């Protein structure tokens, strides 16, 4: 059915299509009209039990507005956000561009969200009780040298409601954010998060894992350094990868020169290579959540073969529709 609907949706502005699709999904969920069954393939990662290894990546449901509808698609886990301490509108529209010839998207959303308090309230109201990741970031007007304050503020408010916390230090659409991947800055941020998490774990009686999301544009030496820092400073997983600033694979296409991060099929080879490099450096010390250019079950299998323990999708869902969740889960349930 999605194949029939996609041309109509792609005739709309991307953000309009997004709102229409998820409002329709919410309605269908409330009426009990959508409940996609997917194969079980349990995985234990970060000390959590995942019913299957297919997750929704952050960015599609920034405020946790659509948790119940999304859950009906059969995801093994859902990640909401990125959320910031204070609401912010993000960058001016237009800020999302489809490149259908390449099955890709460029976005420069800029962490548009309603703030962490609104997200927490949405999570409270939702019926969803599966594995929930809450992805946190900094407000655009917070100086990067004060970024830790924003991450800690979000961590405190989201902690009780999250199965794990994802720390986004790799979006290309918030000025200065990616400098937090530099060794000194990353070490300082990880130390602050680890200290705060220790206190929160004592207060709430449970230790919530921290997963750090990195960019695909790091050099091999930077990836190796990041792996060591994450393993030695309290991280529980690494999410690889965010969107890329590269335009390899989309050269000459309409919108290819738009500012923002590129996702979708052209990102797949680089994201897989980053996973492979991380897996080599980490040597099992931390699990890897693989994301970037997964548009088929085979794409997901390649991420797992490179060293991922779980996978996430976003752009693939837009191009292939809900059946992609079932396809990937079925592929990963099969023996290698």
State Rg.
Answer: 18 Å
Strand neighbour order, sheet with most strands: 3-4-7-8-9-10-12-13
The count of helical stretches stands at: 11
By CATH, the superfamily comes out as Aldolase class I
Itemize the secondary structure elements and their pairings:
Blueprint: H1 2-10, H2 14-30, E1 43-45, E2 48-50, E3 54-56, H3 67-71, E4 77-83, E5 96-99, E6 104-107, H4 116-125, E7 131-136, H5 147-158, E8 164-168, H6 183-204, E9 210-214, H7 220-232, E10 237-240, E11 261-264, H8 268-282, E12 288-291, H9 297-306, E13 310-313, H10 315-320, H11 323-333
Overview of the structural elements:
The chain is globular. The model has no long low-confidence stretch (mean pLDDT 96). It has helices spanning 2-10, 14-30, 67-71, 116-125, 147-158, 183-204, 220-232, 268-282, 297-306, 315-320, 323-333, and strands spanning 43-45, 48-50, 54-56, 77-83, 96-99, 104-107, 131-136, 164-168, 210-214, 237-240, 261-264, 288-291, 310-313. The chain is α/β, with parallel strands linked by helices. The chain has one domain (35-333): Aldolase class I (TIM Barrel, Alpha-Beta Barrel), CATH 3.20.20.
